[in-house]
Amino acid sequence: MSPGCGAALDATGRSPARSRPPMGRNDPARQPPSPHDASRTSAAPATLAAKLAARLGRPLEVRVTDNTRAMLSVRHVGGVRRVRAHGMFLDAPDEVLDAAARYLAHGDPAAGDHLDAYIRANAHRVRAGAASRRGEAGGRAHDLAAILNGLVAAHCPEVAPPSIAWGASRASRRRGRMRTIRLGVYRYDARSIHIHPCLDAPWVPRYFVAWVVFHELMHHVAPGPEAGGRRLHHHEDFRALEARFPEREMALAWERANLRRLVAWRDG
To the nearest 5 percent, what fractions of the chain are helix, strand and coil? Predict the structure, then answer.
């Protein structure tokens, strides 16, 4: 539990302060995902909030996630409890919700043990949620295939388009005194574009996602020359092509204004 952040359980069903138990042969992550996902119903988060609020005796806000790390956490903001809960809790039985309320209220160890078991038994739902985004073009907020196809049709219809998908959830990196995040990458050998999943959010405008995709597409259209085993990526011709993006200046301004939020991104 980190100071001021409230309780949290990770994907192993353990508080980050606890040790992580090994998975045995009967690892529930090997089970197929449930065909019924309650998180797909829009009323479900409000229902979960009402159930937890009734047990806690006070109102709270609930955000349902398909996080791959913290399964259940709470923050206290302005006197309001803000709970982040994995979708597995939407159809949890009453005894699990009772334990969740006790854990969120005061970190009850016995309740934490009960939640440990429930999270481990539903580990396949965590793995399925992560796999459903990685390697796919469709996202929760933005469809990369539609964006790429529109850019190809408008700017380079004569070019066979590369493949595109959301990439792995990589954290930001420190470079000197600054933290940086790689929003997109073009792989020359695979002729593929991968976009960081931090951009798959409603608060990120479509034109900015399109700008990142366009930047990587230009690497596909105008691959740089190689010398001494190294490739020059941002050569003069590339810069000239990149400048043709109609909303380039607006996208760069948005990036400057929101870079800290992107760098601070966490999955879910």
Answer: 40, 15, 40
Q: What total number of domains does the chain contain?
A: 2
Q: pLDDT tens digit string along 64-89?
A: 877 767 788 888 887 788 888 888 89
Q: Nearest 10 degrees: CA dihedral of 145, 148, 152, 153?
A: 60
> Does 206 share its domain with 249?
yes
Residue 52, phi then psi, degrees to nearest 5: -70, -40
Rounded-to-integer distance, Cα 51 and Cα 6, Å: 20
**In Å, what is the CA distance from 95 to each residue of 20, 228, 237?**
24, 64, 63
DSSP assignment string, 218-244: HHHHSPPPEETTEE--S-HHHHHHHTT
d(CA 187, CA 244): 22
Determine the straight-line distance between the first and last CA of the chain, rounded to whole angstroms.
18
Residues 92 and 21 in one domain: yes
Q: Assign residue 158 the CATH number of its domain.
A: 3.30.2010.10
Please choose, from the candidates 82, 69, 80, 87, the residue with its C-alpha nearest in 3D space to the C-alpha of residue 12: 69
**Assigned token pair, 190:** 């695979």
205 and 84 in one domain?
no
Q: Name residue, tokens 């010398």.
A: 227
pLDDT tens per residue across span 185-229: 999 888 899 999 989 989 999 999 999 999 999 999 998 787 777
Look up residue 223 and give its amino acid. Answer: P
Q: CA torsion angle for 85, 68, 109, 38 (degrees, to 10)? A: 40
Of 114, 124, 92, 113, nearest to 28 (Cα)?
A: 124
Whether 201 is in a domain gets the answer yes
| Threshold 0.70, pTM exceeds | no
Domain extent at residue 169: 134-263
